[in-house]
């Protein structure tokens, strides 16, 4: 028997943002495990940043044709401008609610699955449960209400202190409401269940499953058929190109300093090893180009290696990002100083079959996955680590990377990697969905 799930993911493709990844990668496999998905999302043109930077049509092409996607509008932005990004989901709530009502009634939906970083959308879960008696699941890629940016020494929150404060006021009101009757909570990081259980006594351990994003092998298979190109560097120019594709930010400053100081120390001893090396940092800021801020190049200059580093703040399309990975000679990964941070971009880097050098907090799940799969090397740091001291350990891993041939392919343990594939993650998702109906 095929069951029906309404997936609420406002930023679903073609919008090029990270929070739709789990859903887009899972859609090809839901039917295989007994579920027919319906997707509820916003139209890409309701996002001011997407009107300016454009959407990613190739992402939309990767969505299975048989999946029904319903898109809604949003209220005008100007009355909510002081609330920051959180206002987008609030503006969209009336339209998402109305469209969801129709889908639930007409398609006879069995379960609701809300996966987004536009957190106020999660308040639709209890509303629909009250009206239709349908259980709902919440999927967290980031914490909703968090005191991280209020802690001593924390960086400035994205969007500024005022917008962060407004979003947290909304979170204080809506998060308890969304948690009251939730059937199950999925999280990419083990830190989020611990946080939520401390806050809400009625949430037992059995209400949570930690489930990282899956690795989309099908997307790499599409690179050639879609004729994807990248314009960041010329892979045939004779240089060694190391790349990092993803956001920057002040919370990654420690990890960046660890590597940059290691490069500085090593180059002072052996400058000839760095003659033809170029480090590319791509898509480091979510803001449009006229408001983007470079957060990597200033640290590189501080450490004396600015001439090796090129930072392009603008986001590139998803498939261009994959092409950058496959065209690179080596890949770099950097983690936040927040111990709960986990990087979904690890899996595309592994699938790109390039050597990886990662710098992460010692508690990050990335470190364990990278080591078990034998796909690269990790340099770790603790919350109180001095970057210059950690750079000494990083020099050993840096020497390893510099010594590799430019066409080196890691001896990845693909059997160990199999549990991290999109198909396997979808199987585990669907087990949770099944269990929620049985319970």
In short, what is this structure?
With 439 residues, the protein is an alpha/beta fold.
List keywords for this structure.
alpha/beta, 439 residues, seven-stranded parallel sheet
Please give the structural blueprint:
Elements: E1 3-8, H1 21-26, E2 35-42, H2 48-53, H3 57-61, E3 68-72, H4 86-107, E4 111-115, H5 124-132, E5 136-140, H6 161-179, E6 184-187, H7 191-199, E7 208-210, H8 217-225, E8 240-245, H9 253-269, E9 277-282, H10 297-302, E10 309-312, H11 318-327, E11 330-334, H12 346-351, E12 356-361, H13 365-373, E13 376-381, H14 387-402, H15 414-417, H16 422-438
Parallel strand pairs: 1-2, 1-4, 2-3, 4-5, 5-6, 6-7, 8-9, 8-11, 9-10, 11-12, 12-13
Helix pairs in contact: 9-14
Give the overall average pLDDT.
88
What's the SSE pattern? Answer: EHEHHEHEHEHEHEHEHEHEHEHEHEHHH
Structural class: alpha/beta
SS field, number of helical segments: 16
Runs with pLDDT <50, length 5+?
50-54
Radius of gyration: 22 Å
